Amino acid sequence: MASAPAASGEAGVVHLAERMPQLGGADMIASLVPPPQFADATFESYRADPAFPSQQSAKETLMRFAGIGAEPVKGGFFRRAKKGPEAKPGVYLDGGFGVGKTHLLAAIYHAMPVRRKYFGSFIEYTALVGALGYQKTVELFRGAELLCIDEFELDDPGDTMVMTRLLGELVASGSRLAATSNTPPNALGEGRFAAQDFLREIHAMAESFDTIRIDGNDYRHRALDGHAAVLGDSVYETAIADASARGLASDDAFADLIAHLARVHPSRYIRLLDGLDLIGLRAVAPLDDQSAALRFVAFVDRAYDAQIPIRATGTSLDLVFGEEMLAGGYRKKYLRAISRLVALTLD
């Protein structure tokens, strides 16, 4: 019989491959809040790198979007200010890994004094549609005043159509949008599928956003080695024992976890991690199936959101995505996962 997710504060060892979490629509919606490491993110706590002025500029622009600070003055003394272009309903933060986009997105969420607001990754929104159906999802979100979408990506034609329709309906009903990604809106989908076949949909969605570029270096790599940490068997056993004595640790063969992720809907991956203080993976090996690799990416995103350290044996986790995968259309998604895996294993 599959075990239920452990309550927070429980100690011991669990096996993720035995967990089968269940989530209803209301629970899924309620879970759309900033992840723990950004629970208190504010514009004040965002530290712009002076070497990259676009970071401070982006911060100021987003503060105005969130209703903080004065609008820049247009026109001179005794002159009527010129009317600027009509503000778009969304802002889109374009930049590389680790430049603070998610922090700023969470700052928008916390700063805007609206009653109904949601924060989730792109995959969480699309997974929600997959789990509940499109119409039910629209009904649940209708009337929302703000949607924050982290790591906005269009990985296949189905996602393109779903997100275009969903955001179009919500914008028409008055919702405002804030999104982050590593790809400018007009380039979404390039290298992943025949983007020209969906150009109209992609451009229509891009018209809902004002694009804000954020430059900089990945803060996760500024003081970290380039590879994920790999433990010997005895050190791994000690790490699991120590963690399980203080809290809750998981211990799974890497192959077992990968197989189990195919049996759990991605919208429920976050519940696989309930109560965990440490994730243990034995005998990590390179992945040769792209669907399995993408499911693992989604799992890594949830582990990173929850800031749960990972301890592993076998192949270094930053090497599980082969060269062919890294050269394909999902390259940025895999590189983001690698960046996060390095951080979690060296934590």
UniProtKB/TrEMBL annotation:
Establish whether keyword Transcription regulation is in the entry. no
User: GO terms for biological process?
Assistant: cell division
Q: Gene3D superfamilies from the xrefs? A: P-loop containing nucleotide triphosphate hydrolases
Q: Which InterPro entries match?
A: ATPase_AFG1-like (IPR005654), P-loop_NTPase (IPR027417)
Superkingdom of the organism of origin? Bacteria
UniProt keyword annotations, A-Z: ATP-binding, Cell cycle, Cell division, Nucleotide-binding
Matches recorded under Pfam families:
AFG1_ATPase
Protein name per its UniProtKB record: Cell division protein ZapE
Write down the species. Answer: Microbacterium rhizosphaerae
